[in-house]
Amino acid sequence: MRKLPRSFYLRQTPLVARDLLGKYLIRRYRDRNLIGKIVEVEAYCEGDPASHSFRGKTKRNEVMFRKGGHLYVYFTYGMHFCANVVTRKAGVGEAVLIRAVEPIEGVKVMMRNRKLWRNKSTAVRARTNTSPRPPRAPAPDLTNGPAKFCEAFAIARAQNGADLLGDEIYVLEGEKIAASRIDQSERIGVTNGRQKKWRFFVKGNAWVSR
DNA sequence: TGGACGATCCCCT
DNA sequence: GGGGATCGTCCAT
User: Fold this and answer.
1) pTM above the 0.90 mark?
2) Residue A54: its pLDDT value, please?
3) Nucleotide nearest to A61 (CA to C1')
4) What is the pLDDT of residue A122?
5) What is the pLDDT of residue A35?
6) So what's the pLDDT on residue A194?
7) Which of A3, A54, A64, A194 has its CA 20 to 30 A from that of A42?
8) Nucleotide nearest to A56 (CA to C1')
9) Is A139 near strand B, with its CB below 7 A from some atom of it?
10) Which of chain B's bases lie under 7 Å from a protein CB?
11) Strand C nucleotides within a 7 Å radius of protein CB atoms
C-alpha cells in the first residue's frame, strides 16, 4: 500500500476528514508496527470557534499552522492526549481530529499501552483485565475515543509535530469506503460551533465512539 | 498572578 | 447519567 502524498493533506479540511476514513494509520513503535483503520474523525477549520486555532497562532497550536501532513498532538483535561492530522497549506490553522480507529495489527501492545492487560514481564498497574492471555479479539474499548487511541498507539507530547511523510507515524491508502457507508453528525464535546456537521464516521463500525 | 475551563475517560449509582 | 480526576493554556485583572 502507498503512503498518502502531501497533496492529500493540502485539500479542504472536511474533505480530508471524510477521505481519511478507511485509511491505515501506522505507528512505528519499538521495532513493531501498530496499525489502525481510521473509522471516526472531526474537522476543525478557520473561523471555527471550536478550533484551537480560532484566536490565532500560539505556542500550543503552532503545529496546526504548518503545511498539511503533520501531526498536532495536544494535552487536555490534565491527563489525556489527542492527535490531529494537519491540513491545508502553511499558515492556515486547520486539522482533523482522529477520534477512533479499528485495531488491525499490534493488539497486544495496544492493550499493554492501555493497561487493559499485562503479562508477567510487564510491570504496569493492574486495572480491569489482568487475565494471563489477552482476549482473541480486541474490545472496542481499546481505541474507541481520541484519548484511548493516543494511549493505545503511544502518541504523546514527543509526537507533536511529526511529519506524516516520515517513518515514525504515517498513513497508508487502506481501503475504499463507499459513500453509502459514511455518515456525518455534529461534533462531540463541542458547544461553540455546534451546528457544523463535521464529524464523519463509518456506519455501524464497532469502534466508533458512542 | 490567578482562575476558569477543556476536541476525555472511568467508575459509581 | 453524573461527577471526579488533574493540569496546561489563555485571558482578565
Assistant:
1) yes
2) 96
3) C9
4) 39
5) 98
6) 86
7) A3
8) C10
9) no
10) 6-11
11) 5-11
pLDDT at A183: 97
CB proximity A58–strand B (7 Å threshold): no
- Pick out the nucleotide with least CA–C1' distance to A190: B7
A50 CB-to-strand B distance under 7 Å? yes
**Polymer length in residues for chain A:** 210
C8 C1' to A178 CA distance, Å: 40
pLDDT in tens, A87-99: 999 999 999 999 9
**Ordered DSSP codes for chain A:** -PBPPHHHHTS-HHHHHHHHTTPEEEEEETTEEEEEEEEEEEEE-TT-TTSTTTT---TTTGGGGSPSSBEEEEEETTTEEEEEEE-SSTT---EEEEEEEEEEE-HHHHHHHTTS---TT------S---SS--SS--GGGTSSHHHHHHHTT-SGGGTT-BTTSSSEEEE---PPPGGGEEEEPPTT--TTTT---EEEETT-TTS--
CA of A145, C1' of B8: distance in angstroms: 8
Q: Which three cell numbers stand for residue A56?
A: 490565532
Residue A187 confidence (pLDDT) = 96
Q: Is A189 (CB) below 7 Å from strand C?
A: no
Sites in chain A below the pLDDT cut of 50: 120-128
Radius of gyration of chain A (CA): 17
